[in-house]
Amino acid sequence: MLHLQNYINGQLVPPSAGHYLPNIEPATGQVFSQIPDSDAEDVARATAAAQAALAAWRRLPAGDRGKLLVRISELIERDLERLAQAESQDNGKPVSLARTVDIPRAASNFAFFGTAAQHFASETHFQEGVALNYTVRHPLGVVGCISPWNLPLYLFTWKIAPALAAGCCVVAKPSEITPYTAFLLSELCMEAGLPAGVLNIVHGTGPGAGQSIIEHPGIKAISFTGGTKTGEHIARTAAPMFKKLSLELGGKNPNLIFADCDLAEAVRTSLRSSFANQGQICLCGSRIFVERSIYEQFRQEFLAGVAALTVGDPQDSGSRQGALVSEAHLEKVLSYIALAHEEGGTLLAGGKRVTLEGRCAEGYFLQPTVFEGLAPDCRVNREEIFGPVVTLTPFDTEEEVLAWANGTEYGLAATIWTRDLNRAHRVAHELHSGIVWINTWLHRDLRTPFGGMKNSGVGREGGLEALRFFTEPQSVTVKL
């Protein structure tokens, strides 16, 4: 049995109290490792190590910090297959997805921010004959990074890399449901020569280790990705302590398909945006609105694509759908399928748990599921399900679909399919979404800000926005 360890002050160490949690492989339903059930003492040790390392790390030139981050990126690329296998075992996603998306993007996070900090410019304002005013951005200090289970290494590094690049030291907690690749990252950081205490990884639960991170007075900021309810709790705890907050929360994202779209591409990409990672991506388009004149054709082609999505062992190259992350999450998604029936929806595809043979007989598998006939304002169309469940709804006018698209508490992402350039820009600007894709989905540019509106969070990650978050400005005036 594999026993994971915390990474504190440059070393792999057991939890202070000696308590561990079982880590279950979603595809088999079996425990395959034990992870530290860390507590406030472990977080205090990690924070003390980060504070001790901070002065030297923040003084280190950005280029030298960047070289270490690039080295970690290279080690992730070297160990891509090992990390992909670990991510699949831990999360339930197909190995092919981890191999082509999750792990390469984790490497690119370190590579991008390893160089970005060297191009992070300050502002200068010249008052003729009076003074020179300039702005310096200093690292915040020790910061906390808490990441979710759906894209474990990808989103973990998405937070850690800019914090380190900015000159902060980090106390980080991966999800207790998917801790394996974070543990392997600890080993790579040691191999890369990252100074002791600069990055500390504490495993454990949200109420245990996570709560201790957000409460610790020595941690100056919290970057969190996860559910909206958890984000609310973090804000209630951290805001009175005047901690800086970046909260990337839930989504219930609309996919708007107009009659003049490239239908084949819209169908093909909508299948991905509906069911990638078993629908367990905050950016998935779970509400598909199709202009009525092409609704029947879209539905027919979309359902044909759904039928071809093979649910199977994540280790099999032919599997397009793996396991949901946990039994509890599977039960949650199944409860929404039952609710869709209660709310009058017509089941077009899926809707049932899948039982496989062999090693995956006890795994948490679910058919890709499609409903139609649900009101735009029903619970299934308003609440985040975070699984392989989507709804199809025809619309008649632009005004109508915009009202439906904006009719939830969320505002994370949206997708528009049209060949009309004027409509594309007009509709994009009317959507209450922090991210809008036109004729594409999940296109990633690390230079752009990432985040949502309304209950999808506060703050922005990515690019220079991330470096700004992990620094604070200081204005300096020199009299001439």
UniProtKB/TrEMBL annotation:
Describe the location of the Aldehyde dehydrogenase domain by residue ranges.
19-476
Which positions make up the signal peptide? none
Instruction: Supply the Gene3D superfamilies for this chain.
Output: Aldehyde Dehydrogenase, Chain A, domain 1, Aldehyde Dehydrogenase, Chain A, domain 2
- Record key words, sorted: NAD, Oxidoreductase
Record-linked InterPro entries? Ald_DH/histidinol_DH (IPR016161), Ald_DH_C (IPR016163), Ald_DH_CS_CYS (IPR016160), Ald_DH_CS_GLU (IPR029510), Ald_DH_N (IPR016162), Aldehyde_DH_dom (IPR015590)
Q: What PROSITE patterns does the entry give?
A: ALDEHYDE_DEHYDR_CYS, ALDEHYDE_DEHYDR_GLU
Mind telling me which CDD domains this protein's record contains? ALDH_F8_HMSADH
The UniProt entry, under Pfam families, shows:
Aldedh
- Which residues are the active-site ones? E248
Keyword NAD in record? yes
Which family is this sequence assigned to? Belongs to the aldehyde dehydrogenase family.
Question: What is the official name of this protein in its record?
Answer: Aldehyde dehydrogenase
